[in-house]
Design brief:
Layout (H helix, E strand, L loop, with lengths): L1 H26 L1 H15 L26 H16 L7 E7 L4 E6 L4 E6 L5 E6 L1 H10 L1 H7 L4 H42 L1
Antiparallel strand pairs: 1-2, 2-3, 3-4
Helix pairs in contact: 1-6, 2-4
């Protein structure tokens, strides 16, 4: 009798886990799709032959003593942005990425995905490119909605929390959906052996 009750409890637990797994999957299908596709593409960004992320160019020297001051490089980058890309683009910086070992510095802007690479020592333009991977990162972590709605990271925080908890639930329920039937068969086998 105890073993029958145990089997019923296992079956009930399995049904609950199946329902949670199915419901979570159905409700968050679109989000899982975007996360998986954008994550897959982002994994290849450095191997995209410059399509997603401009290649880091080689400057003349990695010795920082020979480099121009960062404010001078910044002035050059803004000039290049307005003269070579578009005079209407915002010069507000997202970050300055110094690649000492390559002798180059990258200027990445907030309101568009333009990247300007300069030689750290001469200020010569090494590359002007689009960082499509930055757009994909914003889609991947939900921060693209914060950017468009001006919610200062709130949507990203909620989105990543919900998706992280959902993925954890998926992992637990998926494991149980695989392991539960094996456990039930083992319990049933023991019951048959005890009865015979």
């Amino acid at each position: 009798m105890y073993r029958m009750d145990k089997r019923k409890a296992q079956a009930k637990t399995l049904r609950v886990f199946r329902k949670v797994h199915r419901t979570t999957g159905a409700l968050l299908f679109v989000f899982f799709f975007f996360i998986s596709v954008s994550g897959l593409i982002l994994g290849w960004k450095k191997n995209s032959n410059g399509k997603l992320l401009p290649k880091t160019q080689q400057g003349t020297t990695s010795n920082l003593k020979d480099w121009l001051p960062v404010d001078s490089l910044h002035t050059i980058a803004i000039g290049v942005l307005h003269n070579n890309v578009s005079p209407g683009l915002s010069p507000e910086l997202d970050r300055i990425d110094i690649r000492k070992e390559k002798g180059s510095v990258k200027f990445v802007f907030v309101d568009h995905y333009t990247e300007i690479q300069l030689d750290g020592a001469t200020g010569k333009v090494l590359s002007i490119g689009q960082r499509r991977s930055d757009f994909l990162e914003k889609v991947h972590d939900g921060s693209i909605l914060d950017r468009h709605l001006g919610t200062d990271g709130v949507i990203k925080l909620v989105y990543t929390s919900v998706m992280g908890i959902s993925l954890l639930l998926f992992t637990i329920t998926g494991f149980w959906l695989w392991h539960g039937p094996k456990r039930m068969r083992k319990t049933a086998k023991r019951s048959v052996q005890v009865m015979s």
